[in-house]
Specification:
16% helix, 1 helix, alpha+beta
Length: 89
């Protein structure tokens, strides 16, 4: 198996982060890579202001192919409800 690149976007507590990780193509591996990246504390967080509802927090990730990202996330998780979306490109 080889590592793939994934673009990760996090929206939480009126902040946004957008970064790329390298991971195997399995949900647990991607999750662990995200946690490792967060632990390094080198992510730039942008304040979104009051326009974002602080009760809605979500993380999306999508595979990076040839330096470009796909049109839609491969997987999306939300804490605001029980709905989880997944798709393949």
């Amino acid at each position: 198996m080889h590592l793939k690149q994934f673009r990760v976007q996090i929206y939480a507590y009126q902040y946004h982060a957008d970064f790329v990780i390298e991971s195997l193509d399995a949900p647990l591996d991607i999750e662990n890579a995200i946690v490792d990246k967060l632990g390094k504390k080198d992510i730039k967080w942008d304040y979104l202001g009051e326009m974002m509802n602080p009760k809605i927090n979500r993380i999306t990730y999508e595979e990076v192919i040839n330096g470009n990202t796909s049109k839609r996330p491969l997987h999306e998780e939300g804490r605001s409800g029980p709905r989880v979306e997944a798709g393949a490109s």
